[in-house]
Design a protein that fits this description.
The complex is a heterodimer.
Chain A: E1 4-7, H1 12-19, H2 22-30, E2 36-37, H3 38-43, H4 49-61, E3 65-70, E4 78-83, E5 85-93, E6 96-104, H5 110-122
Antiparallel strand pairs in A: 1-6, 2-4, 3-4, 5-6
Chain B: E1 2-3, H1 4-11, H2 16-24, E2 29-30, H3 32-62, H4 66-79, H5 82-86, H6 95-118, H7 134-156, H8 162-187, H9 190-204, H10 206-215, H11 221-244
Antiparallel strand pairs in B: 1-2
Classes of the chains: A alpha+beta, B mainly alpha.
Chain lengths: ~120, ~250
């Protein structure tokens, strides 16, 4: 991951509601330092596969989770996920709540793939 | 004093360069402690190489998915496959076989890792990297410069066509090591750093070191043997650390 960037314009209610969900938080925590596939996220969860997949999709839509295609030389590629969320700041002002979501830049190049190959070998 | 080739008949010895040295000067002699140190170095390197291969295959079986296949094959080939060819047991492995198969195994291992990183080079769905970055190109440039310098000096010193093949291997190895070094820096990863060091010591450095030693003029055979065997041991240890570190 590279330097963080900060994207404003997130909706307070949306972000808070997602972070209020324990499964979403668990997914973000588990992918904070290493990329995991959907199957690996399902394996470490007590929720159903469908629920995990929905939560992953929601986090990706909100750009709190990034997905990368993993190499499969046989042609059956699959995605891995890594958290982009770095920090959430909520300020209370006269105009209401203001939310800032700091996101990490997740590289997706050959160097990142080499590191992910190693991480998958270590899991 | 110990006759090194005699000792190696029973235990083995060293890198290609070392065997060449031994064949050029079959009565090369070293102090007994030094000869023993060389043998211990090589035995340790072999054990580390075998352990590295075992760990890589074990982890691959535990987390089997096709994407890991290339990476594991690459690690095993780089760490282990050349060892039998590096070992010198007089009369068992013809020098020509060593000269031909060593770079082939190394090239296959490096290409396997590159396949894992970049995917199918053909313009199909299997290709995962479509546009190299500036930093990718910088590592390519560094690798080509290093290999070209190695080949250039080798040609000036009268090396044959073999130096061209060795130069290609050096370029590939430097590129893989360079990308691993970038991963080590980006992710603060000790494992990626040790992978980079392992590839450098096992594949990228031996040929340039040999060329440099030749360029430096007459050097003691013991120095050649010591440097190459030391590089092999450090490389094998680095590859082992890569797989052990968590």
């Amino acid at each position: 991951m590279g330097d963080g960037d900060e994207t404003k314009g997130d909706d307070v209610a949306t972000v808070v509601s997602v972070l209020d969900d324990s499964l979403a938080r668990s997914i973000l925590v588990r992918t904070a330092n290493r990329a995991l596939s959907a199957d690996e996220l399902v394996e470490g969860s007590e929720s159903s596969r469908t629920t995990v997949y929905r939560r992953i999709r929601r986090l990706v839509e909100l750009d709190l989770l990034t997905e990368s295609q993993e190499l499969d030389p046989d042609g059956h590629h699959f995605n891995t996920y890594r958290a982009r969320l770095d920090r959430v700041t909520i300020d209370l002002g006269t105009n209401g709540f203001d939310i800032d979501v700091d996101r990490q830049v997740v590289e997706d190049d050959a160097v990142d793939r080499l590191n992910r190959l190693y991480e998958r070998l270590q899991q | 004093m110990t006759d090194v080739p005699t000792a190696t008949r029973t235990l083995a010895i060293l890198a290609v360069e070392a065997s060449r040295v031994a064949q050029r000067e079959p009565r090369m002699t070293v102090d007994e402690p030094l000869g023993l140190a060389f043998i211990v170095t090589v035995v340790l390197a072999v054990l580390l190489g075998v352990a590295t291969a075992g760990l890589a295959l074990y982890r691959y079986r535990a987390r089997s998915d096709p994407g890991l296949r290339s990476f594991v094959v690459g690690l095993v080939l780089i760490a282990v496959a050349p060892l039998p060819l590096r070992i010198f047991v007089e009369g068992t492995v013809p020098p020509v076989l060593r000269d031909v198969f060593l770079p082939i195994f190394e090239t296959l291992g490096l290409l396997a890792i590159l396949w894992g990183m970049y995917g199918d080079p053909r313009p199909t769905d299997g290709r995962l990297i479509h546009r190299p970055t500036t930093r990718d190109l910088a590592v390519v440039g560094l690798s080509l410069a290093f290999a070209t310098a190695t080949v250039g000096v080798g040609v000036l010193l009268g090396s044959g066509a073999a130096i061209l093949a060795a130069g290609a291997v050096v370029a590939l190895a430097t590129f893989v090591a360079g990308q691993a070094a970038r991963a080590a820096y980006r992710y603060r990863s000790l494992a990626m750093g040790s992978l980079s060091l392992g590839v450098l010591c096992l594949v990228a450095f031996p040929t340039p070191v040999s060329v440099l030693l030749r360029a430096a003029g007459p050097v003691p055979d013991v120095l050649v043997v010591g440097l190459i065997s030391g590089a092999v041991l450090v490389g094998e240890a680095a590859m082992f650390v890569t797989l052990v570190y968590r």
